[in-house]
Amino acid sequence: MAKIRVGFIGSGGIARGHFKRLHGNPGAEVVALCDTSEKSIEAMVAANPSAAGCAVYNDWREMLDKERLDGVQIHTPHTLHFEQAMESVGRGLHVLCEKPMVCRVDHAKELIRAIDKAGVVFSLSYQRHHMPEFRYVREVVMSGEMGPLHYIQAFQAQGWYRGTIGSWRQDPALSGGGQLNDSGSHLVDIVLWTSGLVPASVFAFIEKLEAPVDILTAASVRFTNGAIGTFSVIGHATGWWEDITWFFDKGAVYMRNGRLSVMDEKGQVTEPPTKEMPTGSDPDTNWIGTILGTETNEAPPKCGLRVIQFTEAAWLSGDSGLPSAVVFDD
User: Fold this and answer.
1) Considering its fold, how many domains does the chain have in total?
2) Could you count the other beta carbons within 10 Å of the beta carbon of residue 146?
3) pTM of the entire predicted model
4) pLDDT tens digits, residue range 302-322?
5) Fewer Cβ neighbours under 10 Å: the N or C end of the chain?
6) Cα 127 to chain center, whole Å?
7) Residues 6+ apart with CB under 8 A from 283
8) Sign for the pseudo-dihedral over CA of 329, 133, 160, 59
9) What DSSP designation does 98 have?
10) CA 196 to centroid of chain Cα atoms
11) How far apart are CA 70 and CA 89, in angstroms?
């Protein structure tokens, strides 16, 4: 079986883990790397010695022109995703894109139309879709066994502000926004994906501190089914902590910094047995499997649209000081 030939647009940081997973996948091979930084390429080869055999480019369009590729992975600053994804999809290439998919709702819709027209596989690197714990929560919600959801509390704190000073992540021209659009994207996505709820409106307070992008976000949300919830994204903390709770009529599910537990109708709290947990995977394995027709795309582009629809509404509310409608059209 011929392997899926992959090129990397952006080879720094998180791309190294993607390369490692693809290198271990019998259905894929990374044949080309592109990055404007020689140090990023050197770090990729240091972490993955087999990357030394890849063709190297500093212009992603040149890589697309010269290499025989089946797909690309996009690991570049956020505002570059749209142009790079549109060009790749337009050439008939499959794409795995790091989060956030894009930084504007109109760009998300235009990209999805292009993906549908091209008939390619486009996946997002929302790794939580493949984690057993979150897959378990989604199954509980979809089964209806605990009744309807009526409240969701989502909290994320990290030292994002200090850790990104001087980097592209605090440059709006490249990041498109602050922590809400960066690691906060994971929080928004996983709440929407596990719950299946549709936000109707959001009221957000946002603080930038001394940065040009959002650092602190406190958002209240009303969903179309009447449920409500809160999103707290704290970019100025001294350590990492994440906490999500899904409250149902007949109990609750808690994710406390990666530890899953369930409260039943009688108030008894237990941890789900390992045998009841779904199997896990990762974005790269699922992307290749979807291209080969052996798996279903677990993080399709509509997830990226939903996240930026919510995020854009939160930004608007933060600027206006008023609630903002979340329009979840396609």
Assistant:
1) 2
2) 20
3) 0.96
4) 999 999 999 999 999 999 999
5) N
6) 7
7) 18, 96, 123, 124, 125, 126, 127, 129, 130, 299
8) negative
9) P
10) 16
11) 11
- Residue at which a domain ends, from 112, 127, 142: 127
> Quick one: which of 178, 173, 170 has its CA closest to 235?
178
CB 178 within 8 A of CB 172: no
Q: For position 136, which CATH number holds?
A: 3.30.360.10
The domain containing residue 233 runs over which residues?
128-278+301-325
The residue assigned the tokens 């603080």 is: 207
Q: Look at residues 127, 159, 190 and tell me which one is the last residue of a structural domain.
A: 127
Say if 296 falls within a structural domain: no
Question: Which residues touch 77 (CB under 8 Å, ≥6 apart)?
Answer: 168, 169, 174, 175
Question: 216: closest CA among 151, 155, 303, 306?
Answer: 155
Cα-Cα-Cα-Cα torsion 210, 215, 216, 221, nearest 10 degrees, comes to 140
Where do we find the tokens 């929560």? Answer: 137
Model pLDDT for residues 228-277, shown as the tens digit of each residue: 999 999 999 999 999 999 999 999 999 999 999 999 999 999 999 999 89
Q: Which residue has the tokens 């996983």?
A: 190
**Residue reference for tokens 């949300």:** 221
